Amino acid sequence: MPVGIIRIRTVCADLRGQGGELARTVGLARARHRLDIVRAAANVQRRGPGRVVPDGAVSGRYDALQQGERWPVSVSALLSVEGTNNFRDDHAPALGLVASKTYGRRLALYASPTFVWHSITPGTGALTGHEGHDPADLGNVDVLPATITDENTAYVGLGTRLLVPKTTYIVLEFTPRLTGFAPGRGTWGVAVEKHTRGHLFQLNLSNSFGTTYGQLARGGERSNVYLGFNIARKF
Question: Right CATH number for 5-233 from 1.20.1740, 2.40.160, 3.40.50, 2.60.40?
């Protein structure tokens, strides 16, 4: 949830896959400044017969405020740009904020309002697939109108992380689109995490393979649910 808690991706693109904002925010990384360069190969676009084009993204984050005696919440600014065809085509910049509130180790809440320019691009539209599957075969693809009036998307990534007994967490995320281009359904995810000494193991369910802000803006599938697994190591 582009919050990406669930895919140790980048929030709400962040909680899940590219590194997941959620995942980053909850403590897998403590840097005040962060720069990421990723290839989001899990979610691919089809451009012409048989041609699969992976996405690439460059993103940065600045932790402006830290929760403490002075500030009740932590606030970070994020900036990203992604593209297709090895970052050569269909660039989609994104700008947003991540606000988080933690209650010890037991509960964390996240909200990430984000705006993505060119979320629908000439080469991608709303057609996404995975591992070579034709998205038209899934029965979940929206039929786009001949004329798109708004090619940008505003959405907010929402996420929470709840500690159950000792070292097990329940993670929830949802990314509703507020305005603009919004095919399919808002992406959602549910995960169970188990923490050991330095490792995090996560089993998750989601309606999308999206890992970047642009992919989250394009939404998830209406009826398919995917099972995933993440493992992370904190140094």
Answer: 2.40.160
